[in-house]
Fold this sequence. Notes:
By secondary structure, the chain is α/β, with parallel strands linked by helices.
Amino acid sequence: MSDFETLSVSLGDRSYDMVSGPDVISNAGKLVAPVIDHEPVIVITDDNVSKHHLENFSASLQSAGISSTVITLPAGENTKGYDGFRNLVNAILDTGPERRSTLIALGGGVIGDITGFAASVILRGIHFIQVPTTLLAQVDSSVGGKTGINTRHGKNLVGSFYQPRLVLADTGVLDTLPRRELLAGYAEVAKYGLLGDKGFFEWLEKNGKAVIEGDMAIRQQAVMTSCRAKADIVSRDEKEAGDRALLNLGHTFGHALEAETGFSDRLLHGEAVAIGMMMAFDLSVQMGICPAEDATRVRTHLQSIGLPIQPTDVAGQAWQSTSLIGHMAQDKKVQNGKITFILTHGIGDAFITSDVDIDDVETMLDRAIAA
Ligand code: NAD
Ligand code: GLY
């Protein structure tokens, strides 16, 4: 296990480790054994991930002498609704769990979010472990304890803050991830450089393509640097009373774009975040608080990686700034009717503000839509 790296998410008696490396899954049994109090563990996965990685994962549990039972859900965002949640909770209860039981989420953000939420409410709280298998889940959703499901009123509107006991991020499993999903996850990696670490962004300018092409050492460095940044913010502000909102760079705009495309495959979450981060930079430049060359640099990098950078990169969609602003006004982060924005003074220097003239937002959106 010498190629593995570990970092700690410091949250008092709820602190936990995040372990990353190229073959973590084959060693999962040994790694999870110290945090398991009761068997069988209940592995929750989806029908894509199970094809590629369940056998190896289950074998690793078995070789460590850990008994397991598996629940396989349909892949995709639709699973993360009330129906999917009810089915999952019933399937878990059918196995006769105890308070000391452990759920293991083996999958992307959909599996991690719904499993974490189930763990937080079953028997008023059982243990759970995250084994994220998408880049997005490895650098964002598996760390920090946000869990939840979607409702007809919007995404992630029902959920809880509930921390896992361990996160195992195997950088090798990303080799089976469709390239488009990998690129979408990369937007969240770039986010950490853009919001608070210019040095990391500069490193990504040199190494971003190697992250995508599968250089394991480089990929692991990108995952660990991202998670270190996230762990640091979450340790300071677990429940998003302040700084944690910086992690939403690009998300207020991105969420509006996703809503407008009906949260469909036409625009993945990470793709929307990439366009949204560009919008945050462009609005900041327009407001005179960010150098134009920084926005140009971000645009060049995201485009070179293969990410969309403007609404017109989404095929077959007509956009209207007023309806995008309408979606933003329904964001979870609206306070006293004011939209919270994450803007920037430059690469690595994001800040939170609700002091933004909505006419400026409309002007920026109109320019982006016409680009
Ligand atoms: P996902 O879980 O739907 O995974 C994307 C696709 O990749 C799915 O089809 C899945 O089956 C497949 N897949 C996963 N791993 C694979 C692998 N190794 N090889 C082959 N295929 C694989 O999507 P996602 O992008 O991981 O996560 C999106 C979800 O995460 C959204 O529901 C979003 O709301 C949530 N999210 C949560 C947080 C948080 O802090 N909790 C943060 C960001 C996003
Ligand atoms: N994905 C944003 C957060 O965890 O706060």
